[in-house]
Amino acid sequence: MVLVVTGVPANGHAPWWVQAPAVALVVTTVLPVHRWLRAGVEDLVFGQHDDPYGAITQVQRELSAAGEAAESALARTIAHAVNLPYVEVAIAGEATQRFGAPVTGAPPIRIPLRHHDQELGSLVAGPRRRGSGLSAADLRLLRDLARQVAVWAYAARAAEEARASREQVVRAREEERRRLRRNLHDGLAPTLASLHLQLGAVQRLLPEQPDAAAGLVAGLLGDVRATTGEIRRLVYDLRPPLLDELGLLGAIRSQTSLWTTPAVEIEVTGVAGLPAAVEVALFRIVTEALQNVVKHAAAGTVRVGIGTADERVELDVVDDGRGLPETLVPGVGLTAMRERAEELGGSLTVLAAVPRGTRVSAVLPLQQKGTQA
């Protein structure tokens, strides 16, 4: 069989109208096939992970070995593990780490870093080529890596919060020790030294001048009473004896039993067996808040409510007085109340009450079983 092509010049070169369909055929078939083959080869080389969880192990090893400095190498490690041109790791409170650069025309994909329903940052990964995304295998591996990074970030944040909490407790303890030392050194020590000298004088005067010795003894009795009162004050500062004698409700009532104005309404429920530190903090905050009402509020009534819910204790002290000033400058009392709440991991707010007056609200966690007052 002979195929005869007519209209072809003798030199063997087809005219352009004959070559045009052939070029179009190449463009529409060969080039897409080439691109498809190229993409397939790239996916085979870069997108397939023979040991995907080896990448997770590699990242875990990097995190464990580097400790607090792990974030500096994290983006590079993930990029190498998944064979990506661009990776960015952003963790709240940390400097954003980047490796490589995004490919033009290949928008990066963001994967949130979540742990216990908390979003701690994001993992951003750039596809390998323009006009394409990441493969399903890439996305699965990146999500697994994101979970590992989120666990690490959560643990690092928890460790930092625990360290800060310990520092706060240590500072509070040392301040309390300093206060006790100052009170003992400046108050009790000189008084006891004076008593010692006066007792020596009484001993010398007693045989020959009993009347003079009796006068010194009378003075000594007054000094002993004053010293006893100082010791009681120091003990009261450590833990009010009223809490042990009367309980929280009785202790608060004892502080207001002689008041005529403002009238005090107290409602305390579900507070049996409170941790000692929480009980002391509540008593101190309530008494300070009530003193502020008496001094500044010109209130007719003040209501104190204390109750427990969801592993926390809630306190409200609400008066119907003149309310807050336009510009509230925290004084010593308000600062002390807020510090007492925050020392136990709680919070304290001071707001305007409705329809008038002031509301002091505190929330304290109950997980303080090992804390001492």
List the helices and strands and how they pair.
Layout: H1 16-47, H2 52-66, H3 71-82, E1 86-91, E2 97-100, E3 109-115, E4 118-126, H4 136-205, H5 210-238, H6 241-256, E5 263-268, H7 276-297, E6 301-309, E7 312-319, H8 332-343, E8 347-352, E9 358-365
Parallel strand pairs: 5-6
Antiparallel strand pairs: 1-2, 1-4, 3-4, 6-7, 7-9, 8-9
| Helix percent band | 55-70%
The side-by-side strand order for the widest beta sheet comes to: 5-6-7-9-8
Task: List the total number of helices.
Answer: 8
User: How far is the first residue's CA from the last residue's CA?
Assistant: 109 Å
| Proportion of beta-strand residues | 15-25%
Largest sheet features: 5 strands, mixed
Number of domains: 4
CATH topology of the largest domain: Heat Shock Protein 90
CATH class of the largest domain, named Alpha Beta
Question: Total number of β-strand segments?
Answer: 9
Quaternary state reads single chain
The radius of gyration is 39 Å
Mean model confidence by pLDDT: 78
Overall outline: elongated
Which H/E pattern describes the elements?
Answer: HHHEEEEHHHEHEEHEE
